[in-house]
Design a protein that fits this description.
By secondary structure, this protein is an alpha+beta fold. It has 4 helices and 11 strands. Strands 4, 5, 7, 9, 10 and 11 form a 6-stranded antiparallel sheet that branches.
């Protein structure tokens, strides 16, 4: 992830977590976890889609309490790496405006065998969405405005005028 302008980064042997305002680099994240000891590399790329619940989405905007979010991401990465005997794990989350079809989160893992990589990658994603201190503003087209949501899959948000 060294090619990106990072807002914050924590690293240890085989673990890297990043929060950045820059576009995420898939090749760099995969390179972070590749090693001759791994027989499997799994990548999850979460992208901004153009709709939610039948409504047109113009973009997403992510914010976080970054010092705590980095620590939480690092704790998740450590736990998942140990539980699934991963060779390496990298979690990168983009902050700020993320246009349609661009990545907001990348999670790459490597392991000696595919099962550990698949399950470890999925568990890291679900824990990240459940626990990391990141929020998103989902902007809709037209007069509807936007909705703030915790970064949880499928949960309805609070309209901006109701949030104040």
């Amino acid at each position: 992830m060294s090619q990106q302008s990072s807002f914050g980064q924590l690293q240890d042997e085989g673990i890297s977590v990043v929060l950045t305002h820059s576009a995420l680099d898939i090749a760099s994240v995969i390179a972070d976890v590749k090693t001759p000891k791994a027989g499997a590399v799994v990548l999850f790329a979460g992208t901004t889609r153009d709709n939610f619940d039948g409504k047109l989405v113009t973009h997403l905007e992510y914010s976080s309490y970054s010092p705590l979010a980095l620590k939480t991401m690092f704790s998740i990465a450590q736990a998942v790496k140990q539980k699934h005997a991963l060779t390496a794990i990298t979690m990168a989350h983009r902050l700020g405006v993320v246009p349609i079809a661009e990545e907001s989160i990348l999670i790459a893992v490597s392991a000696p065998h595919r099962h550990a990589a698949w399950t470890g990658g999925q568990e890291a994603l679900e824990m990240c969405k459940e626990k990391v201190e990141v929020w998103k503003l989902e902007e809709f087209g037209g007069d509807e405005g936007g909705v703030w949501r915790a970064n949880r899959g499928g949960a309805r948000g609070v309209p901006l005028d109701s949030a104040n």
